[in-house]
Specification:
This is Alpha/beta fold hydrolase. The structure is a single chain. The protein contains eleven helices and ten strands. By secondary structure, the chain is an alpha/beta fold. The protein has two domains: 234 residues, Alpha/Beta hydrolase fold, catalytic domain (Rossmann fold); 137 residues, no CATH class. The strands form two sheets. An eight-stranded mixed sheet has the order 1-2-4-3-5-6-9-10, sandwiched between helices.
């Protein structure tokens, strides 16, 4: 009979006010839920990670605990609030979780980056094997190189895209020409204008992708320049240095405009033409969809196309551990080209690419396919 255990994991605070809750900041802990299949701990534990989603109730963990392993879902310090998220701090949280699991006696740790956890898990493993990060993209000290991160024994990309900055840029609305007015639009780059498609011509796609990257880079340049300006002008007045203004929030409109959402001939698969948040036009502006709120520092670490390090395409070539990539043929968020690109990025031979036919991003209505994914990961991770 599976049993559930709450893990309180000590973490290193960032020293910056980047978590709203004082209770969370002052606790010095992050949390995970561990499922065990029996009274004794298994020799292998599977750890599911994501930068901001609450994986303490992850759908796969309880079932996995019936397959001869224990399984845990982690919540980082940024759970449910990625507006100030720093990817490098998430590495410290994963490192603390893996160290905690090893202290509990687990001999093997299988690290699973699920969905937006793919790029983060790849970055973690690359840094755990060969650490070299000492600063965030904004220049803030973060001692990844000296943190003593414990490498996982194997790495899984499960229903994952290569990283938040990559998939975010692929979904930035290229038609927006005024960051303060999402309805001031370049008609020639508007994927929602029926004169452009779908089906979208190759030339439109080429221009659209170029414009998306250019927009991301404009926001990155503005964020960097704004950080310089506030450092020069916003000195503390009668307070300590820690009270000085050192970041600002901002809004990004139009973040669910990937042409693949409307055109099934691009990156062909069994997916429905939609997004994880509903119809593309409304999801593009809906507050609950991806990455509408950010701080300057978080943008550089999390969303910047050029500066964010949590990019599996760039990190997987550095990874020496075995890698499994599992994807669904009906996924409308992590596409077949993402899975193939991640598998191709691995530079050693111990890599496997597995398609689960008919599976969407969350296995909606198909618990049998979720169990299949779980079995694939367990069988591979306990070879």
């Amino acid at each position: 009979m599976p049993t559930r255990e709450l893990l309180a994991i000590d973490v290193v605070a960032s020293g910056r006010l980047d978590v709203n809750s004082g209770v969370a900041r002052m606790s010095g802990k992050t949390w995970a839920v561990l499922w065990r299949g029996g009274p004794r701990r298994a020799s292998t534990v599977v750890l599911f990670v994501h930068p901001a989603s609450n994986f303490m109730g992850h759908y796969a963990t309880e079932y996995m605990s019936t397959l001869g392993v224990d399984a845990a879902g982690l919540a980082t310090r940024y759970v449910g609030n990625d507006s100030a998220l720093i990817m490098e701090n998430c590495l410290l949280d994963i490192g603390a979780a893996i160290a905690h699991l090893r202290d509990l006696g687990y001999e093997r740790v299988v690290l699973v980056g699920n969905s937006g956890g793919g790029g983060l898990a790849a970055l973690y493993q690359a840094q755990a094997e060969s650490p070299d990060i000492t600063r965030t993209p904004a220049g803030d000290p973060v001692d990844i190189a000296g943190a003593g991160l414990s490498p996982a024994d194997s790495l899984v990309m499960a229903m994952a895209h290569p990283g938040r900055a990559v998939v975010y840029t692929e979904a930035l609305d290229a038609a927006i020409v005024d960051e303060l007015n999402p309805f001031a639009r370049d008609e020639s780059l508007d994927m929602f204008d029926p004169r452009n498609g779908p089906v979208y011509p190759d030339e439109f796609i080429r221009r659209y992708r170029e414009a998306q990257i250019a927009r991301n880079r404009r926001i990155t340049e503005w964020a960097q320049q704004t950080l310089i300006e506030i450092a020069e002008e916003a000195e503390p007045s009668g307070g300590s240095e820690a009270d000085a203004l050192d970041d600002l929030p901002f809004v990004v409109h139009g973040t669910a405009a990937d042409p693949r959402f409307l055109d099934g001939t691009i990156d062909p698969s069994d997916r429905k033409l939609t997004t994880l948040w509903g119809a593309p036009w409304s999801a593009n502006f809906r507050p609950a969809s991806l990455g509408h709120y950010s701080s300057l520092r978080s943008w550089l670490s999390q969303w910047s196309y050029d500066l964010s390090r949590a990019n599996a395409y760039k990190q997987l070539p550095k990874v020496q551990a075995p890698v499994l990539v599992v994807y669904g043929s009906a996924d409308c968020a992590a596409f077949p080209s993402h899975a193939r690109g991640m598998a191709d990025a691995v530079r050693h031979d111990d890599v496997e690419l597995v398609e689960i036919e008919g599976a969407d991003h969350y296995f909606q209505g198909r618990p049998d396919l979720a169990r299949r994914m779980s079995s694939i990961i367990v069988d591979w991770g306990t070879r």
